[in-house]
Amino acid sequence: MSQVSSAVTRREFLSLSAAAGVTLAGGAGAATLGSITDRYPESRFKTLDPRFGGMTIGNTPIVRIATGNLWAEGPAWSGTGRYVVWSDIPADTQRRWLDDDGHVSILRQPAGKSNGNTFDANGRQVSCQHLHRRVVRYEADGSETVLADRYDGKPFNGPNDVVALADGSVWFTDPGYGLNWYEGQPGELELKESVYRIDPNGRVERVTDEIYKPNGLCFSPDYKTLYVAETGSSHYPDAAREIRAWDVSGKRLSKGRSFASMEMDDGSGGVADGLRADTHGNVWVGAGWGGDGYDGVHVFAPDGDRIGQIVMPEICSNLCFGGRDRNRLFITASQSVYAVYVNARGAHFA
Question: What residue ranges do the domains of the chain occupy?
Answer without folding.
Answer: 10-341
